[in-house]
Specification:
This is Multiple sugar transport system ATP-binding protein. Keywords: ATP-binding, Cell membrane, Hydrolase, Membrane, Nucleotide-binding, Sugar transport, Transport. It comes from Rhodoferax ferrireducens. Its EC number is 3.6.3.-. This protein folds into 2 domains: 236 residues, Rossmann fold (3-Layer(aba) Sandwich); 144 residues, Nucleic acid-binding proteins (OB fold (Dihydrolipoamide Acetyltransferase, E2P)), CATH 2.40.50. The chain has a 6-stranded mixed sheet, with helices on both faces. A 5-stranded antiparallel sheet has the order 13-12-11-14-20. It is globular. It has 9 helices and 20 strands.
């Protein structure tokens, strides 16, 4: 049985405005780490607060451990929430902040001591237990807030953008600590809200990517749900493909020429480009969009199949990698990611190779066609400057 179940859940604040949350059907298993991610305003925090009992459900059903929770008050749901704000009591020590909820619930002293010490050890807070919040760094304060949730020993942990107030280095450190926490407390389910897809990709067992705008009313709130690499390699539509991945996927307008044997051929700036996808359901000569991720595009000598010419418009040298922005004849700007320092220069002519096994294809309604490349090579990096599919015919 799923630990948490959403069944046709809707949230509407006012009858005169569209639903904020629409048609959510979702299962979260015991011990699973699920990340709600999406653009601002998509309702990810609202969905989390519905689990906590801080938002009412307009229609549908939410259950936890098989029990309907729609009318159950927050204190009886077996959940603990960590907010974006630390919300620590400034006059209390770290120990007392973590113990406060238990003491309010009249938990016996020995149990309070045992739970606080256990949480403190997990979060490496032992040396800080006598300090006040003002004597802690931002990362330490957030760990105390997490510890306050741990001591309750809930069935479900809820995290509402807990790292957004931290600087970059602390975000990485605390993210690793949350991942370790999930491993140490493997029986509790965790739901984590973020707008940062790096957090989503690195922490999640399952990502729930939420729609925004008109797509919510048309398709429901959930754009796609699955393992991180499932969304990365097999996005169901152009929105998912463009949201997951940084830099985002390149999109190139094209005209479908033909589709046979799991390979589609489309014309880009008078050049035929092949993609290993099943586009047999699409009408011939229909307008489509090709997609390819920056790390899969290669700069190669002119000529050959799947090679399109362009001019370097911008160049970003980051040290460990370079991003080359190439303008194609049709006006599309294609991002190319190269390791290390690039030898390209702004204004120079380059030729881009699009590996067929790395390509995506979206129809006129932005729906993805199924990829047909062998599962073991989908998304693999290029080897020595040569794509897997061309390695037998092109030297590195």
């Amino acid at each position: 049985m799923s630990e948490i179940r959403f069944r046709d859940v809707h949230k509407r604040y006012n009858s005169s405005v569209p639903d904020t949350i629409r048609k959510v059907d979702l299962d979260i298993d015991k011990g699973e780490f699920v990340v709600f991610v999406g653009p601002s305003g998509c309702g990810k925090s609202t969905l989390l607060r519905m689990v906590a009992g801080l938002e009412d459900i307009t229609s549908g059903e939410l259950s936890i451990k098989g029990q309907r929770m729609n009318e159950t008050p927050p204190s009886r749901r077996g959940v603990a929430m960590v907010f974006q704000s630390y919300a620590l009591y400034p006059h209390m020590s770290v120990y007392d902040n973590m113990a406060f909820g238990l003491k309010q619930a009249k938990t016996d002293t020995a149990t309070v001591e045992q739970r606080v010490r256990k949480a403190s050890k997990i979060l490496q807070l032992d040396p800080l237990l006598k300090r006040l919040p003002k004597e802690l760094s931002g990362g330490q304060r957030q760990r105390v807030a997490i510890g306050r949730a741990i001591v309750r020993e809930p069935d479900v942990f809820l995290f509402d953008e807990p790292l957004s107030n931290l600087d970059a280095s602390l975000r990485v450190q605390t993210r690793l600590e949350i991942a370790k926490l999930h491993k140490d407390i493997g029986t509790a389910s965790m739901i984590y809200v973020t707008h940062d897809q790096v957090e989503a990709m690195t922490l999640a067992d399952k990502i729930v990517l939420l729609n925004a705008g008109e797509a919510v009313q048309r398709d429901g709130s959930v754009a796609q749900c699955g393992a991180p690499l499932q969304l990365y390699h097999h996005p169901v539509n152009k929105f998912v493909a463009g949201f997951i991945g940084s830099p985002k996927m390149n999109f190139i307008g094209a005209q479908l020429v033909g589709a046979a044997n799991g390979v589609a051929t489309a014309k880009v700036a008078e050049v035929e480009v092949q993609a290993e996808v099943d586009a047999s359901r699409l009408a011939g000569h229909s307008m489509v969009t090709l997609g390819v991720r920056p790390e899969h595009v290669q700069i190669v000598p002119p000529g050959g199949s799947n090679v399109v010419a362009g001019l370097v418009a911008f160049l970003e040298q980051l040290g460990e990698a370079s991003y080359i922005y190439v303008r194609l004849a049709g006006g599309e700007l294609v991002t190319v990611r190269e390791s290390g320092q690039s030898s390209c220069s702004v204004g120079s002519a380059v030729s881009l190779y699009f590996p067929p096994h790395c390509m995506h294809l979206f129809d006129e309604n932005d729906v993805a066609t199924p990829r047909t490349a062998r599962p073991e090579i989908l998304g693999q990096p290029l080897v020595a400057g040569v794509s897997i599919s061309r390695a037998t015919t092109h030297a590195s």
